[in-house]
Every structure is written in C-alpha cells, then in structure tokens.
Design a protein that fits this description.
single chain, 207 residues, Lambda Exonuclease, Chain A, binds iron/sulfur cluster
C-alpha cells in the first residue's frame, strides 16, 4: 500500500448520526462530557484544547524521525497515513494516524500518543484503537488481528493490542452506551474518579 491508500467509497453520509474515537475518550473520562457536549451543546474550553493541540503538534514534529523505525520494528510492509474511516453500521468516523500492511497481508492501525504511558489512560487508548481496527476491517474488507499504540514521549514505547472478540464486544458496548446518552439525552452518572472534577470545565453546572 502506498501513501494514497486505495480506499473504496465509504458508506458514510453526513446525515448519519456518528461519533468519533475522540468522543469515546471523552466518554470514558467522564460519561457526562457526552451529555454536556452532545445534548446541551456546551463545548469544552477552547483555550485548554488549543494548548493541548499545540503541545501535540510540537511533539509530532519532534518525533517524526522515529516513525520509520517503529514501522520496521512492527514489520510493516506498507502504510497509509492519516486515513479517514467511517462506518454507518458502527456509527463511528475518525482519522487514524496510520494503516499498516503486515507481512501476513493483514492490516493494523498504528496510533501515536503524545502523552506519557499511563495504565489508567491505556484502557481508553486501547478502546480507541479497537474502534480504528473495526473501521479498517470494514472499509478494506481485510483481516485486522492486532493494532499498535506508540507512546512517542516514552522513547517510542510500542504496545501491541490484540483485536479479539472480547475487545470487540467491550468496544461496541461503549459505543452503544454513548448513543444511548445521545439519543435519550438523559443525564448519566458522574465519573467515579472524583479527582477529575477539580479542574473540569463543567464543574459549575454539573450537579
Ligand atoms: S464535574 Fe466531574 S462529574 Fe461533572 S462532568 Fe466534570 S468530571 Fe464529570
């Protein structure tokens, strides 16, 4: 696969309600984020997001040279960069950093993370990666048995994630729970990690 992946036309339509892998991250951080963003249409503070994005850009530039090394380590024989993927069936759309072709002909998502590796955030990143894997499988109609997370701040710590039926069910369940909030607009429970409320931009309206 070269840089311009031969993607078939996606079944996505602008009219189909969809969520993004970023929203999955928000949901796992606190289910109420989805309620405030999608039901009440109150965005998060833009300046905070800007700072986060700016920081990521700097790290992206610094770490570009490591990427070829990571692909070699994985054993990829081809790649496609910044691939837009969408599935009306899964109700998910997003852009994955890389779609890799592995030696056995299967495909795999590679997602770069610009934060240090943390056990707590790993579950979130793993579910996001599984979503990309399901999107790739459906879009290319090729087997996807694993995916990779590269934590580029930690000397490019590379983690392989198996895409098995357990991981798929867990991920589909998360998507279903998000859609339940979006469709019913019922206020979900708070995060059980109350420390997250301290610097939350919704703390003044979250009762
Ligand atoms: S204040 Fe706490 S419970 Fe409310 S949205 Fe923020 S993190 Fe979630």
């Amino acid at each position: 696969m070269d840089e311009s992946a031969k993607l078939p036309p996606v079944s996505d339509t602008e009219a189909t309600p969809m969520i993004t892998p970023s929203e999955v991250i928000e949901y796992i951080y606190c289910p109420r984020f989805i309620y405030f963003m999608r039901c009440l249409e109150i965005p998060q503070f833009e300046d905070r997001r800007y700072k986060v994005l700016k920081g990521r850009e700097v790290h992206k530039r610094r770490t570009k040279e490591n990427r070829e090394y990571l692909r070699k380590k994985i054993g990829a024989t081809g790649k496609s960069l910044n691939v837009y993927l969408a599935s009306a069936r899964l109700r998910v759309r997003g852009i994955v950093d890389e779609v890799l072709v592995l030696k056995d002909g299967s495909l795999a998502p590679l997602d770069y993370k610009y934060t240090p590796f943390r056990e707590m955030a790993f579950r979130t990143h793993r579910i996001q990666l599984v979503l990309y894997a399901l999107l790739i499988r459906e879009t290319y109609n090729q087997p996807v048995n694993c995916g990779f997370l590269a934590y580029v701040r930690d000397s490019s710590k590379l983690i392989k994630v198996n895409i098995d039926s357990g991981a798929e069910h867990e991920t589909i369940n998360v998507v279903d729970r998000i859609f339940k909030i979006v469709e019913t607009c019922s206020l979900p429970g708070r995060t059980k990690y109350r420390v997250r409320c301290h610097d939350c931009c919704y703390k003044n309206i979250c009762v």
